Protein: Argininosuccinate lyase
Organism: Pseudomonas lutea
Amino acid sequence: MQESKVSRRLKEATAPEVNEYIYRPRLEGFADGFLHLGNVNKAHIVMLAEQGLIHGEHATALAKGVLDMEAAGPGVVALDPSREDAYFNYEAHLIEQVGTDVGGRLHTGRSRNDILATLDRLRCREVLMDLIDLLIETRQTALNNAKVFAEVVMPGYTHLQPAQPITYGYYLSAVEQALERDCKRLTQTLESMNQSPLGAAAFAGTPFDIDRARTAELLGFDGYLDNALDAVGSRDFILESLSHLSLLSVFWSRVAQDYFVWSTHEFSLIDFPDSVAATSSIMPQKKNPTVLEYLKGRTGHIVGLLMAASVSVKGTNFSHTGDGNREGTRGFWEAAEECRRCLKLLELVLRTATPNAELAVRRAGEDFSTATGLADLIVREADLSFREAHHIVGAAVRMAMDAGLPAHMIDTEMVDICARDQLGHALNLPAQGVRECLDPTANVQSRASAGGPALSSLSPSLIRANTRLQLEREANLTRRDRFLTAHEKLQAATRAQAGL
C-alpha cells in the first residue's frame, strides 16, 4: 500500500483529485517564490548555527546545499503535488543533495506555518514596493501634464452638468493628489507589516533556543511579531493591502469615466491617439475607448477579489487554516497583478490624452458655468447677500436660455431687469466687470483661493506636489536599498557558513 510522502501518520497516498485540484495549483507559483523560500532557509540555517542548535558540519552542508539550489534555479526541483506544497518539494530536493540526516535538520525549531507566513510577508513587501513605484510614475505624469495644461480652460462638472470653469491642468493636479493618498495607504501598510513571523513555529513557539531577532534582521524585517499565534494566524496585512487596491481601482475607474464621457463625439473635450483606441468590426467610423473600458471593468474584478478574500477569512478560526491563510490570500496576488497592468494603462491615458483647447474654452463660455462668477460680482459690487445674488443670476440665466443666448451674452441690462423683478431696483453693475466674470479664462484666474484653479494658486500647488513626490520616490529607493543590504548580509553569512 502506498503511503503519504510527507507523513507516516497518513497511511494512504493522496487521492488524485486532491493532488489535481488542491496541491498542483499551489505549485504553479513555485518559481516566483523560490528565491524567497531560499532566503528564509538561509536565515534559519545561519541562526541555527549561531545558536548552536545544529552541528557546524551540518550547517555547512545545509548552507552549501541551499546555495547550490539557488544557483541552479527553481527548475532543478522536481515538483510533485503529492508532497503538498512548495516547501516539501524544496526540502525533498535538498535532502536528495545532502542526505536525510543533514537535510532533515533544516526544520529544527520551525513549522511550515511560520514559513508560509514569512513568505507571504516577503512577497507582499516586494509587491507593495513595486506598486508604490508605479503610482509614483503615474503621479509624475499627471503633474507633468498638469503644468503643461495649467491654462487650458474647460468646463467643470457636477452631476455631469456644467458647473464652473476649471483648467485641464487643475483636473490632473486633483488626480495626482488623490493618487498620493493611495500611495500613502500602501506605504503605511508596508511599514506596519514589515515584522517577521519566522520562529513562531506552528503557532505556539518552540522549546529550542532560537533567535527570532536574528532571522528578522537577516531577512530585512524591522523586528518580529511578538505573539506566535498572531504571527501565523493573521493575514490582515493582505486584506489591508487588498482593500487599498480596491480603493485605488475605484478611483481610477472614476477618472476613466471622466475621460470616457469627455472623449465622446457629443463632448469632444479630450482626444486620444489612435494607438490607444480600437475600432468596430462593422462600423468603420468608430474609435472606441478600449483602455478606458478595460480600466473601468477591472475595478469590478478587484473589488470582487476583496469581497471574496474577506468572506473566506471571516469564518475561520484565529489560527493557521488553509481557508484563512491560503484561500483568503490568493485574491491579493491576482489583484496586485491587475493593478500593475492598470496603473501602466492609467499612466498611458494621462500621458496621451489631449484636450481640445479651443472647443473647451468656448464651451465654458457658452454653457453658463461662469454664472457663479456673476453672483460673486453682485455680492462684491452691490453688497447683497449671496442668496439674493443667486436668485438674480438664476433669473438672468433663465432669461438668456429662453432667448437662445449663450452665457457670455448676459449683460448689465439683463441683470438689472432681473434685479428689479427680485428686489425692486437695478444694480447698475460695471459692464466690464460683468464681461470679465462671464469670460471663462478670467473667471478661472479669479479663483485664486488656496486650492483653486487660478494659475497663481495652481503653480505653487504643483511645486509642493512635486517636492512631496520626490521625497516619496527617495524613500522607496532607500527602502529598497535597505532590503538589498539585508540580503547581501544574509548572502555573506550563508556563504561564510558554507565555507565559500
In short: The first strand starts at residue 153 and ends at 158. The chain has a mean pLDDT of 91.
